[in-house]
Design goal:
disordered N terminus, five-stranded parallel beta sheet, 3 domains, 316 residues, Rossmann fold, Multidrug-efflux Transporter Regulator, Chain: A, Domain 2, alpha/beta, single chain
Length: 316
Amino acid sequence: MTYTALSQPVSSTISDVERDTGVAKETLRVWERRYAFPQPMRDPNGERIYPVEQVHKLRLVKRLIDLGFRPGKVIQYSTDQLQALTSTASGRGSCAGTPGPELQSYLDLCTSHQMETLRRKLSQALLMMGLKSFVIDLVAPLTTLIGEAWAGGQLATFEEHLYTESLTVMMRGAIFGMPQASASNIGAPRILLTTLPQERHGLGLLMAEAMCVAEGAQCISLGVQTPLPDIVEAARVQHVDIIALSFSVAMNPRQALDGLAELHARLNGAAELWAGGSNAALKRRRPSYVRVFELAEISAAIAEWRARQSAMLSPG
């Protein structure tokens, strides 16, 4: 069998760019008219196609917008300037380009496509660190580094997907290997984990599930992109105490806030809403009816939930 190598990087359609960057098609067209960027080429049918370099820049522009910048302020910058500004704005300063040697070694395995070695290295780290430390001290910062490398064009989309799939398989195995809380255990919260329909990224959700399971919670995962009526129905049928949602930086903040508001209204107080992730919606106009936690705060949040339940059940 003969394989023909692609001589040129594959350009993206406008639908590809929307899925890849989280920037809506309408917004891409407005920016093209208003700011003269992006500057797509046209295929034989007259449809827009975007070179790889422009997609890389759009990822960085989207990241800065999520950090609070206005498109008109940053869209004229070069990719290198955007990369530097992203590093500064996200609080990583001049050290952004030099991650610690341990994290860099994992990134190097991704870029050199040594996925079996990556899985072995991650498995060894899990055995040595334990699940909670593994998630907080290694997986969370490594996933951030992988995302930034992808946004900056250092990592191809397929390489980021290979990392995600490798980590997902390993994390799922670790979760299944944890002792599961019994349904009769009154002190264990029942937690439904999922994402809103517009959120397709699931690693944050998986990390949250690992932290909850490690604290003895009964976890029911629906995976990603669950329609709101199904979330509400699952919560009712499963008698859950908490619905935990994950929001990545890629999701539109307005959609995140609107989805949370609608879900809150549909639930009518039937379950607590917890949320986490790097989305700007959770940092700016945080809704009062949603409790927002970092991964490292989940243990304390579950302990506090148990204390509240105990107080409610105590006589007098």
